[in-house]
Each structure stands twice: as C-alpha cells, then as structure tokens.
C-alpha cells in the first residue's frame, strides 16, 4: 500500500498567505478548495482562505490558464455585495483509475473534483494475471483516450490493488485472491501507458475517497471497511492522517480475529473477519449466477421482499452481521473513530437487516467506545475505490499545481 498521501492531513484549514513568496502554497490552497467542493465562488474563496480579492482573482486566473479550474455562472446564492463567479474543477484534467479483482477489471477516467466521466468494467472468467490486466487496461485506455475532446489530458494512473503494495509503489507484494506475489504491475502499467502509475491497497484508497468527498469529509477519525470479491480490507484516518504503520501495511482489518477455530484464511490464520464474512456466502444464499454478481445487492433485497427462501437468506445475513460486529468492536476499541463507513458487500448486511448491526454492537448493554460511533454506508458499486485511486494521482498536483504540470511525465 503506497500513496503520496502519507502524512496528508484531511482536516483542512485552507488558510492562504498574501506574501508573493507563498504563491505555490496559495495556488495549492485554492485548488484544493475547488477540488473538494461541487463549486465555490470567488467570494467564498476570499472568506475561507483569508486572502484578499485581488489575490484570489490572480490565483484563479493562473489556475484557469493551467487548465485546472473553470469559471461558470454568477453565484445565485449570494444575496449581498458584488456578484461573484463560481469556480469549478476543470473536467479536462483527468486521472486513469484501475482496480483489478478476481472477476472484473474496473477502469475509469476521473476528473478533478472526484467525478467519474467514463468507466468500464471488464468481466473475466477467472482471476486475471498481471499481464492480462495490463492488456485489458491498455485496450480500454486506448479507446477512452481516442474519444477525449481536444484539450483534455490524463496526468497519471491510480492503481487500487486488493492486496499488499510495496511502499514506494514498486510492486504488488501479495494479492492472494488473485494469485499474485512480487508482481511489478505498477511499472508494467507505466511502461504500457506511458503514464506515471501510483498504487495502493484498494480499501485504503476507498478511505481516501471517503475522507475527500464522502461521509468522512472533515472527519478526523474514520474507519473505512470495504468488502469485495477478494475479501475485506480497511483504511484508517486518525487525527486527520491516513494511518500507515511502520512499513505501510496498517489497515489490514480483514484479518481481525472474530471466531475461534474458524474458517481458514489466506493469511494462514483461522477465524479472520474476511474468512468468516464473505461475499460468496451471500451469493450462494440466493443462488446468484456468476455473471450477475454486479447486481448482488438489488437481487438480494428483492428476494427478501418477495419471501423466496427469505428465512435461509436472513439466517446467513444474521450470522455475518454478528461476526462483523465482533470485528468492528475490536477495531473501534483500538482506534476510537467517530465514523465507520461500510462499503462493498458489507453495506448489504446493514440494508438487509435494519437495526441488526446496532443491536449486535450495543445489545449486550456493555458501554464502550462504540456507543458514539456513527455507521455510514458508502455509495453502491466501486465508485469510491476508483475515485480514491484518482486521488493518488491528484495529490501531488493539488500540492504544487504549476510545478506538477511542468514536470516531465517520466519523472
């Protein structure tokens, strides 16, 4: 798991400086504000940053010339003072996001502001090899690039991997569900696409997306737990920082122990959360064909509503909810977050059994740090993973807009 976001503080202050020597800092401050909002007026930028109106005007003009922001219609919400134009992230600056999994390779173009503008899910009949991922992404990207309007540019690749990624991004150390070990996928993608590739664990980039745009925005202490075809992973924001650990592998929440003498896990232990709470159990419970797993949540909810084998499905869900609660209690006790965001198939457990997770967390009557934790559901699908992967690419651009665009792509 590697990311240039190491040490990045998500509890933003957005204070600028009127000193000319701090132009880079001010450009970064303004661009980050525009990037994290659906649209912000010049007046709002002035109030938030503390910079004067003329400085904001000059910074917005420079960012516009760099192709990073666009000015749109007058801010209709402003009721007093001089009318102020709205500043929005430019749709012409894009990152390519890649998320391989055991049955699909997801590829998307994501613009500044965390907007997915083009996404392709390439289904596979088995776990793809590294070379197959490179070939799939290369073919998809060629089509996407050809269709881009003039003036649009892709500034890098964000790779989200369901496994361990070497600090520094050199290779995928291990993705057990894909059968990968010591694979140089980031370098292979860079060579094939001629774009710099930045990589991280898929659940970690999901946490980054939640901190930037989702339920964790401006929340300093957050746990994101994501369940996918390859198991369960997590990302932890503590004190506004992504928790990395000594060697960059913090957040392996799928290996939290939840059951004594439980199912064997790929890590070599037994009874890990990801071995006991699985997407496959839900798929089997409703007899879902392999080609329809993308619609798992919708079909499962329909089966519960129409009563077809609902008791058997509810039994599977209840067991998974109880084990998920065991894992969450451990994680919450360790890091004391204010928000837990559940993504992937984990959100299905909450929707399919309303109140069951809360009851499992609080039903014993024992007070603990979970009493004040808010449980949120990530959006349906893999959008948070793809948006978070793009954030890996955008982080150095947001830190130094002019400098990043002047740096040769191969550096």
From TrEMBL:
Annotated spans, Disordered: 1-22
Pfam families: ROK
Signal peptide: none
Family to which the UniProt record says this protein belongs: Belongs to the ROK (NagC/XylR) family.
The protein's name: ROK family protein
Upper lineage: Bacteria, Bacillati, Actinomycetota, Actinomycetes, Micrococcales
């Amino acid at each position: 798991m590697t990311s240039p976001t190491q040490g990045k503080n998500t509890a933003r202050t957005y204070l600028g400086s009127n000193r000319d020597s701090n132009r880079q800092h001010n450009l970064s401050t303004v661009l980050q504000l525009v990037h994290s909002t659906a649209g912000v007026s010049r007046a709002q930028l002035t109030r938030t940053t503390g910079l004067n109106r003329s400085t904001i005007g000059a910074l917005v003009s420079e960012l516009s010339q760099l192709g990073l922001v666009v000015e749109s219609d007058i801010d209709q919400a402003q009721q007093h003072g001089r009318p102020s134009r709205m500043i929005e992230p430019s749709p012409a600056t894009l990152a390519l996001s890649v998320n391989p999994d055991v049955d699909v390779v997801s590829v998307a173009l994501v613009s500044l502001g965390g907007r997915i503008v083009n996404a392709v899910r390439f289904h596979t009949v088995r776990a793809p090899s590294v070379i197959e991922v490179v070939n799939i992404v290369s073919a998809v990207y060629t089509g996407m690039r050809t269709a881009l309007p003039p003036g649009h540019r892709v500034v890098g690749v964000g790779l989200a991997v369901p496994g361990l990624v070497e600090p520094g991004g050199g290779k995928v150390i291990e993705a057990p569900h894909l059968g990968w070990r010591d694979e140089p996928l980031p370098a292979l993608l860079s060579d094939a696409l001629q774009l710099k590739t930045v990589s991280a664990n898929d659940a970690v980039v999901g946490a980054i997306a939640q901190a930037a745009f989702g339920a964790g925005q401006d929340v300093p202490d957050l746990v994101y737990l994501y369940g996918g075809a390859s198991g369960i992973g997590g990302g932890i924001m503590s004190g506004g920082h992504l928790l990395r650990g000594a060697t960059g592998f913090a957040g392996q929440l799928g290996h939290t122990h939840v059951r004594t003498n439980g199912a064997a896990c790929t890590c070599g232990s037994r009874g890990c959360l990801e071995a006991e709470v699985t997407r496959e159990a839900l798929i089997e419970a409703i007899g879902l064909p392999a080609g329809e797993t993308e619609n798992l949540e919708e079909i499962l909810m329909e089966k519960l509503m129409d009563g077809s084998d609902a008791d058997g499905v509810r039994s599977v869900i209840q067991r998974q909810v109880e084990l998920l609660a065991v894992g969450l209690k451990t994680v919450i006790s360790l890091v004391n977050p204010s928000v837990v965001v559940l993504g992937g198939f984990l959100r299905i457990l909450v929707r399919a059994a309303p109140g069951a997770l809360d009851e499992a967390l609080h039903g014993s009557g024992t007070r603990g740090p979970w009493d004040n934790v808010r449980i949120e559901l990530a959006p349906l699908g893999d959008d948070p993973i793809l948006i978070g992967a793009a954030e890996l690419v955008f982080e150095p651009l947001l830190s130094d807009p002019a400098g990043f665009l002047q740096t040769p792509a191969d550096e």
